[in-house]
Design a protein that fits this description.
alpha+beta; Glutaredoxin; 2 domains; 54% helix
């Protein structure tokens, strides 16, 4: 199967969670907008293309299927790319964990856009500072502490006792948060040894290492989800 991934150019965003799975598995895929521009997605978003109409990128075209939402895409890709256990119960658990990651990603995004996504960050700085403090002090320890316990329950090395797309997403989450909140993540690090070790192992996987060293990996920037604004970080 040759896959076509659709996501905005110039940023990692939510598309990166799908991209990591494709790269780790060595899948045959085209990052369509990077080759043809963001306008190529409009036919799908406006319902002028075969398949169900997605609300927003990322979405994946696999044959005649058009699949949107990160967790849904990974749930679809997992068995084919061998990035999820065979047991149905484990696949449901993987989806559950991925949806929880999506919950945290949404909260991270809303840290720098707490009033409206249509406004620039500069238009909502006071609100962003209050939201960032809540995320740093309460939400990050709660979410990351949960994922630390998940890895512990999974044997200490993986979220599901074997490598899966959940591990790849936890890697992206940890690297993104380290870029966004370096001071806070350094403070939390002693309480998250398993998550940090997992991220380091994922980084060394052949497909991921090659991807991270390539031009395909867009650097974290202030157009994406994990944005570093020094005034929003604190130990």
């Amino acid at each position: 199967m040759h896959y076509h991934l659709y996501y905005w150019t110039g940023l990692q965003g939510r598309g990166e969670f799908v991209r990591l799975a494709l790269e780790d598995a060595g899948a045959d895929y085209t990052d369509v907008a990077r080759e043809q521009g963001d306008g190529v997605m409009q036919a799908f978003l406006q319902g002028r293309h075969e398949g169900p109409r997605p609300f927003a990128p990322p979405f994946l075209k696999a044959g005649r299927l058009v699949i949107a939402q990160v967790a849904n895409i990974l749930h679809f890709l997992g068995p084919t790319l061998e990035l999820v256990p065979d047991a149905e119960s484990r696949r449901i658990q993987a989806l559950q964990l991925q949806l929880t990651i999506a919950d945290l990603v949404a909260e991270v995004h809303d840290t720098h856009h707490p009033v409206a996504t249509s406004l620039y960050y500069e238009d909502q700085r006071p609100e962003a500072k209050r939201r960032a403090q809540e995320l740093r002090e309460n939400r990050l320890p709660k979410f990351l502490g949960y994922f630390e316990s998940v890895v512990e329950d999974g044997g200490g090395k993986h979220a599901l006792r074997q490598h899966s797309y959940v591990d790849l997403s936890l890697f992206q989450l940890m690297r993104g948060l380290a870029h966004m909140f370096p001071k806070r993540m350094a403070t939390l690090a002693p309480d998250l040894p398993l998550l940090h070790a997992l991220a380091d192992r994922v980084e060394q996987r052949p497909g991921i290492a090659a991807y991270l060293a390539s031009e395909r990996r867009v650097a974290f920037n202030t157009n994406g989800i994990f944005r570093h604004y020094p005034e929003l970080d604190a130990a």
